[in-house]
């Protein structure tokens, strides 16, 4: 049962079956994941077992009356909610939620297993007993406590995996907006992510990082080492000429935290007459997630060698605001000084006429 639970981190079918196994082992008539969406104070149902659509619709109408809402602090502390222990059997007999929803749908007492929470949601696994069936016995209670930490860990891994999948799809969508090939590479040239034009470029026989390339050329290896910060105080950008007249530009990857949990990566871009120019603002926004104010400051610093007080006066912001923006730019672009930033923008081709 636990093996299938952890297999369910990557497989929705295995996850659903593992929850079914757990609910059956606990003698449940129905079960499912229930999340309290804190901003709206509403309950969200997921991975439901044994609940037909009409019962789900009925629950959505009655959820505000669910007395389990009063146990949010208990659940937040990591303790299991058993309705008959928390409220007492006598009170449950009088609760409208039981009289008007649970019993008419053949359900009796229920338990909530706390699975963790994030900024917006508190996650639980709800187990409902059949109406008239006695509460959990000692063996079922021990099993519930034994499986709880595994449920929590597996759900945490699953949510993290889903988030990384969504971020990867979003990143791919953003990179596809660029008019030139762009690859995200490891220091040894392994392709971690690519945009659509990058996929096309890698199919070309003269692409040094192409699918037909037998080995990584030494000049590109050195550029990747520099961009990933190997053997240097800080990652730095570089470029070289391509046989077709274009240029290969290798940059430190600002998306490292999203893709590999902190491992050093590099951006590899091909530029040349066959590729469509990308507006400078789009490039900075897509690659480095700069805000409009940060883009404006980066452009100004690349074109003018003014002291910061003069730059602040020119842009109409306070010196403190300017310094905050500049620190943010350095952090996002992995540069340390204005000279590094100007050099980086030069490699990006941002000093040509544009938006």
Brief rundown of the structure:
The protein has 16 helices and ten strands. The chain is an alpha+beta fold and 355 residues long. It folds into three domains: 2-168, 2-Layer Sandwich (Beta-Lactamase), CATH 3.30.450; 177-276, Beta-Lactamase (2-Layer Sandwich), CATH 3.30.450; 278-355, Arc Repressor Mutant, subunit A (Orthogonal Bundle).
Could you characterize what this model shows?
The protein is α+β, with helices and mostly antiparallel strands and 355 residues long. The protein has three domains: 2-168, Beta-Lactamase; 177-276, Beta-Lactamase; 278-355, Arc Repressor Mutant, subunit A (Orthogonal Bundle), CATH 1.10.10. It has 16 helices and ten strands. It has helices at residues 2-7, 12-25, 53-62, 72-76, 83-86, 89-94, 96-102, 138-176, 196-202, 218-227, 256-260, 280-288, 292-303, 308-315, 319-333, 338-347; strands spanning 30-37, 42-49, 81-82, 107-117, 121-130, 182-185, 191-194, 238-241, 247-252, 266-271. A five-stranded antiparallel β-sheet has the order 2-1-5-4-3, sandwiched between helices. A five-stranded antiparallel β-sheet has the order 7-6-10-9-8. The longest helix has 39 residues, at 138-176. The radius of gyration is 28 Å and the shape is elongated. It starts with a helix and ends in an 8-residue tail after the last helix.
